[in-house]
Specification:
Number of domains of chain A: 2
Distance between the termini of chain A: 41 Å
Strand content of chain A: 5-15%
Largest sheet of chain A: 5 strands, antiparallel
Number of strands of chain A: 9
Shape of chain A: globular
Radius of gyration of chain A: 20 Å
CATH topology of the largest domain in chain A: Aminoglycoside 3'-phosphotransferase, Chain: A, domain 2
Strand order of the largest sheet of chain A: 1-2-3-5-4
Largest interface: A-B, 36 and 36 residues
Oligomer: homodimer
Number of helices of chain A: 12
CATH superfamily of the largest domain in chain A: Aminoglycoside phosphotransferase (APH), C-terminal lobe
């Protein structure tokens, strides 16, 4: 939960004069998201989300995110649409931070994931990949699986305080990924953070996708591997093959995967687990005093990594390669 | 900011079947309030606030609060109106907690208080007192100024860690209030927590009052003294006579105060400062590890108490008694 910046009404009123969305009627800080400060705005023109970008997001990346949301929305992906200012710019400044107003999406995120939700998210991810195929901007994946070593090095001496033996296991995994990380798979713009709290449902229907602030260019199948990590494990961290099967089949119905992509799935899933392990380790070891955010346990992703290390093929994720080809 | 309980959508859907407010379209945890978990609901029927009452609120008090909001709303006070369930009850149960749905009020609370806001809140407080005059339920003020000793005793050995000498100053003040606390002043139902974040404005117009979870029966002038503490000090904790004068004059225009009430104002203000000092001290010294709430500084109210100790009459708050009689 996160509201890092309290916004005085006088500053918000002045900020909204740059927009054509009427008079402010109310605003409430939203206890969701960990990277930015989010507010639900009510104005004469309806409901909107106001986001203040905190230091965790690089300001130079913001035009990429905003353009991507506009691009995807124009192609029928239900995601927040940036509201442009009267001067045409999609970004303004509020309380010393870059700030954007986007449309409000109805829908709720699923605290208890069922296989039917995995079907829906697999299909939505594939549609997102197809809709992004002609997106021209480019953003390098700063958290690519092969770039994680400096993150772990930054807190190497404290990693074993989380769990004895974790540091050497991580270093072995980094070495493995350096040599095994796939090359030449289809690339494009990926969401890179499509966790359950970023996917909205209305009843059983997937109604929208939010939070594009990790979106970047990378292998499309890596995005699938992220979703396997995010959607297909139970609370006890055991992998659910029914959910994995549902997600992979639904994805492949919209965007068939090549043999090479399917063969790479265990390695991609290891890289994805290590990427979320990396940020969780760093967050866990760097909780500021008086923090308002309780970090999530790194051990969850250490255990998921162990599962992927024992996977031989995409079959271990619930499907035979021939089913998806 | 507070959302103590995450509500799964399945449980919320089941809970809302008890209400006649349509289908759930979205809900967001609100980063406001420190006592309860609050969510903004969007349903077919509009926007509502869902409150889950956490352990800090005694369940047996909830019917008082709910009945009071209904009573005041029926008398033209713009406050949240409890939405009754299909079975007529105003309270249900959700995630193991008592829960209520109330109407959503537009408006924003003022981060930067001006004298004009003090005028508005003084008038609103007096209207609230008049509207509550025929409210029949009764709730004892558990945090009455003369009942604070056990709260301070519970952490007496650590109080001087906040500021050397604080403990003996508090004990002297408790002794003083025991003998000086006024009796026989007009009583009624008071809000008891009318801080800026509980008062909404639309432009310059006061549009609503929220958070009745400290409401109780006590001296009406004590509620005025609470507002002097809450609204009329600057960020450097200096008292602003212009704001105090605005608040007191506006209150007295709607509900004239007796000479006895005016004469008691310095003592009432000391009791009010000590009451907020008490809960701030307890919160400050009892932050649980990993707390999501950063406690407010107790020193603010220690300094306000010092101001009131040097006040001789209501004149020190910005008005002469004869102006208000």
């Amino acid at each position: 939960m996160a509201v890092y910046t309290d916004v005085p009404v006088e500053e918000l009123d002045a900020f909204l004069e740059g927009y054509d969305i009427g008079k402010l009627l109310s605003y409430k800080g939203i206890a969701e998201g960990v990277q930015n400060s989010n507010f639900l705005l009510h104005t004469d023109a309806g409901y909107f989300i106001l986001t203040l970008y905190e230091r965790l997001v690089a300001v130079e990346d913001l035009p990429f995110f905003v353009a991507l949301m506009e691009h995807l929305a124009a192609r029928g992906i239900n995601c927040p649409q940036p509201v442009r200012r009267r001067d045409g710019r999609p970004l303004g400044e509020l309380c010393g931070r870059a700030a954007a107003v986007v449309t409000f999406l109805d829908g709720v995120w699923m605290r208890r994931v069922e296989a039917s939700h995995c079907t829906a998210v697999g299909e939505a991810l594939a549609r997102l990949h197809l809709a992004g195929a002609d997106f021209r901007d480019h953003r390098t994946n700063a958290l690519a699986a092969t770039k994680l070593r400096p993150l772990f090095d930054s807190c190497a001496d404290r990693i074993d305080s989380i769990q004895p033996g974790m540091l050497s296991a991580i270093r072995d995994e980094l070495d493995f990924l350096d040599q095994a990380w796939p090359r030449g798979l289809p690339e494009g713009v990926i969401h890179a953070d499509l966790f359950p709290d970023n996917v909205f449902f209305l009843g059983e229907r997937l109604s929208g996708v939010i939070d594009f602030y990790f979106a970047c260019n990378d292998m499309l199948a890596y995005d699938v591997a992220i979703c396997l990590n995010a959607w297909c494990f139970e609370n006890d961290h055991s992998y659910n093959v029914t959910k994995g099967r549902a997600l992979l089949q639904a994805y492949a119905r919209v965007r068939p995967m090549s043999d090479a992509e399917l063969a790479a799935m265990p390695v991609l899933a290891r890289g994805a687990a290590l990427r979320f392990l990396a940020t969780r380790v760093v967050d866990w070891l760097n909780v500021p005093p008086g923090a308002l955010v309780r970090p999530k346990s790194p051990q969850e992703y250490f255990r998921k990594l162990r599962f992927h290390q024992h996977a031989d093929s995409v079959h271990d994720y619930g499907v035979a390669a021939r089913e998806l080809a």
